[in-house]
Write a structure and sequence with these properties.
Layout lengths: L1 E5 L8 H10 L25 E8 L27 E8 L7 H5 L5 E3 L5 E3 L10 H4 L6 E2 L6 E2 L5 H4 L6 H5 L5 E4 L1 H17 L6 E3 L12 E5 L19 H32 L1
Parallel strand pairs: 1-10
Antiparallel strand pairs: 1-8, 2-3, 4-5, 6-7, 9-10
Amino acid sequence: MGFFTDTSVCIGCKACEVACKEWNAVPEDGLEFTGMSYDNTQGLGADTWRHVAFIEQSKPIGQNETGIDHGVVDHGAAPDASGMRWLMASDVCKHCTHAACLDVCPTGSLFRTEFGTVVVQEDICNGCGYCVPACPYGVIDQRKGDGRAWKCTLCYDRIGVGQEPACAKACPTDSIQFGPLDELRERAAMRVDQLHDLGVGDARLYGHDPDDGVGGDGAFFLLLDEPEVYGLPPDPVVTTRDLPSMWRHAGVAAATLLGGLAAVFAAHGREGGAR
């Protein structure tokens, strides 16, 4: 199970942020004006499990007014060179198929659920913080004054009783969709084709590919620009990818060292015996 977030219909209402905080009792994370459009949180963290980004672009609008019936589109016509557009996107933990945070957690606080999602058990977390740099998306974080790691649980308590996550339930435009990942990927591909037919050539999917560097995300997105514009890494790779080979090299080095020491002691013993 997972999320498909269609940013082309996100209106930036922040209902998902509020619903997430209310249901999961996530503390307030600052109401100061940041100067970054209407974004008062700037990114995901221990106290921000859903983050709505507002990206202002001075870019010709053309046919990027999604959700409007344009009728017959003249693709040869010159686009309107004036105006700007807002790219709005509700970001969340990606619930990676190959999750580095799981690999480095020494206490088992992080575990994969029967739904394929990744959850932190805060009562087992010892606050070591290993998971924070391990995440390729910079999602998980330690709470100030607490020290333990916190992030989106994909409302594990709700989906366990047949309910959809609070953010998806509260989204008024169905920008956030919840369900089986295979169905969501099919729906997302159809939506991209629809947008391309409407002249929105920049529409693309992010995190949907099971063959990418993290094995595909449990929360993937339809974007209207490059991932970097939204603050997302263009080619994320599980940070523990090279750990097995590193341990193998370390084991070979240790065996070589022990073999060398054994040879030295053996030679020293033979010399002592000869005298």
